[in-house]
Amino acid sequence: MHAGATGGGYTLDAGVTTYVSIEMTGPKSNSIIDDNDAKTTQTAVRVLLERAGISGATVRIRQKVQVPVGYGFGASAAASLSAVFAVSSALGLEWRREEIALCAHMAEIQCSTGLGTVSAIYKEGGAGLITKPGAPGIAEFVKLGKPRDIKIVAVCLSPMEKKKIILSKNMRNKINSYGRKCLQRVLEKKTIEELALAGEYFTEKVGLATQELKKLMKRTREAGALSASQNMIGQAMHALVYVDKIRKVKRSLEGLNIQTMEFGIGETGARIFRA
Q: Residue 275: which pLDDT band, with cuts at 50, 70 and 90?
């Protein structure tokens, strides 16, 4: 309940949509059939069923994932959160949002795929800071103002093994040391621009970016991006770009045999769509 991480980031206007069907097959163990075979999502659904006291259910999950998986976009948190909201709705559970989201948070901790993303995105979107770690309802989130004319341009090179980094004592110490400095820096001004600059500082000091990624970040800044930082955790970058600079920034990345993506900053959290 109190495990997690502090830090800052942005909710994207792209995410994960989950379609679920449930069949009660009798008094036996639950079966999770997931077309994406995502361990964190399956763990989150199992946690929810156990906490609800449900057994003998066959849950079929189909997910449409709009962001790259394994590159630090928070896809595992979004997928597990989307799944537990869909399953709870299908079962007719009248739980508070925090109780539903807790199942996704627990799965992220158990699977070492994330340490706080669920607590940042389950309720609302935007840009902001987790200033106190923990599960949904325990974590404290400070929302930052968002200029209407900012977009995010992202590029992916290769995924990273998040578990090894999270479990490394030396890397955790490094992340915690520089993370505290960045958090304090952003809390002093509480602007999205300061969050962007802190992301650049954190990227430089933690030292997980390859030379190729560093060159891409430098290129986007020179083309007019407000900032460019490494995704945490993946060999991928996200650049904050004012709308009038989007074309120039994207043009600077042409001819490099990489996929360039563009996102808006999302304003909503998890929600139910009924067929």
A: low
